[in-house]
Automatic annotation (TrEMBL):
Chief location: membrane
GO annotations of cellular component type: membrane
Family (UniProt): Belongs to the plant ureide permease (TC 2.A.7.19) family.
Transmembrane segments: 6-30, 42-60, 80-97, 104-129, 141-161, 217-241, 261-283, 304-323, 329-349, 361-381
Subcellular location: Membrane
Keyword terms, alphabetized: ATP-binding, Membrane, Nucleotide-binding, Transmembrane, Transmembrane helix, Transport
InterPro entries: UPS_plant, Ureide_permease
Species this protein is from: Daucus carota subsp. sativus
PANTHER family in UniProt: UREIDE PERMEASE 1-RELATED-RELATED, UREIDE PERMEASE 2-LIKE ISOFORM X1
Protein name stated in the entry: Ureide permease 1-like
A Pfam entry, by short name: Ureide_permease
GO molecular function, one term: allantoin:proton symporter activity
């Protein structure tokens, strides 16, 4: 099978994973803002995500000859390795719940801040767990200052959200008070509203599938915190599945290779996503519109984009795990810097933070700088796992 064994190869995997994992949330956010139900989008996303995992397992997991202590993917399917299989499936459940929660958090808190808070929580908790699970192969003197930077980013992200929410509320209040449609020259040529204006915020609320105005911002923050806790546990669970630090496997049975663990991990994630989203079709949460399987199957508006998002996420998670197996899962958590990519898409395509106050801009820049420092430090802590 194809195995990443060098530190350079592991870092390359992390960088690609960062790009892919930072892009797919932006695609799902676009679809929600255009009015597509998150249940429909997530069902499409889950299908292609799982198909990518199967493809990776049957190609990279089968290339070359099988080693005695590293059997290929198909060989491992028949082995007695259920303790680690269950651990991998537990990690998949955590990831699925986290991804499902962020769909709704994006609507309340915004793409940029949601990704910052969830990723920072995942690093603070998950990286610490992975460090000790990996027998401390990462450099603690470098790793934990990086974790501290992520922790600071959590508080900066919360401050950015609070400041930006106050800016939006002020825009809407002025528009309501003055009764002037074009208060901020919000209508451009051709009658198109400009991002960041009060008119833009009203138009967005009318078109999106999840209505957020009038609801407490605490709802979004609670959902975001829950998602972050879920994200913090899936990587340590995957680490335990592939390296069996708790010695749950029978003597002589090889550890799960990355591709086998990723298959079972994604199988449970796919199952949870399908079951919950089918339920949400008929019993939606947060007052989203009801739907049905018939409506879902006939909804082709944005379906190919949802399929593409699933492909990106499947590739991104696979690359993260391949890099983590080589250089340590604590260092691989550097891909949690995906808010750097997500924030870029949020500013470029969604008009997030347009026409905000100087205070919001200062907090936003501080947050991004802290992320850049944290990622650089975390990658610098990379070790080398003996295979």
């Amino acid at each position: 099978m194809f195995i990443i064994e060098s530190k350079g190869g592991a870092i390359a995997c992390m960088i690609l994973a960062l790009l892919f994992l930072g892009t797919w949330p932006a695609i799902l956010t676009v679809l929600e803002r255009r009015g597509r139900l998150p249940q429909h989008t997530y069902l499409d996303y889950s299908i292609t995500n799982f198909l990518v995992v199967i493809t990776i397992a049957l190609t990279l997991g089968q290339i070359g000859d099988s080693r005695q202590n590293m059997p290929d993917f198909l060989t491992q399917l028949s082995q007695d390795n259920w303790p680690c299989v269950l651990m991998a499936m537990a990690g998949g459940i955590f990831l699925s719940l986290g991804n499902l929660s962020t769909q709704y958090a994006w609507a309340f808190v915004g793409l940029s801040v949601t990704e910052v808070i969830t990723s920072s929580i995942a690093v603070v908790i998950g990286t610490t767990l992975n460090y000790f699970l990996d027998d401390r192969i990462n450099k603690a003197g470098i790793l934990f200052p990086g974790v501290g930077c992520f922790l600071i980013a959590i508080f900066l992200g919360s401050a950015v959200h609070s400041s930006n929410s106050a800016d939006n509320a002020a825009k809407l209040e002025r528009l309501s008070y003055d009764g002037v449609k074009d208060l901020e020259n919000g209508i451009g040529e051709g009658g198109k509203t400009k991002a960041g204006t009060a008119d833009f915020l009203i138009e967005l609320e009318n078109t999106r599938s999840i209505k957020v105005y009038g609801k407490s911002i605490m709802i979004g923050l609670v959902i975001t915190l829950f998602a972050g806790c879920c994200f913090s546990l899936f990587s340590p669970a995957f680490n335990l599945a592939t390296n069996d630090q708790w010695n749950t496997m029978k003597s002589g049975v090889p550890h799960l290779v990355v591709y086998t663990a990723y298959f079972y991990f994604s199988l449970s994630s796919f199952t949870v996503a399908m079951v919950l989203n089918i339920i949400f079709l008929y019993r939606p949460i947060l007052k989203s519109p009801k739907s049905s399987m018939a409506k879902y199957l006939n909804d082709w508006n944005g379906r190919y984009w949802a399929f593409f998002a699933g492909i990106l996420c499947g590739l991104g998670n696979g690359l993260q795990f391949m890099g983590g197996q080589a250089a340590g899962y604590a260092a691989a958590d550097a891909v949690q810097a995906l808010p750097l990519v997500s924030t870029f898409w949020g500013i470029l395509f969604f008009g997030e933070y347009r026409r905000s106050t100087k205070r919001t801009y200062v907090l936003l820049v501080s947050m991004l700088v802290m992320f850049i420092v944290a990622v650089s430090v975390l990658i610098a802590s990379s070790g080398h796992r003996k295979t």
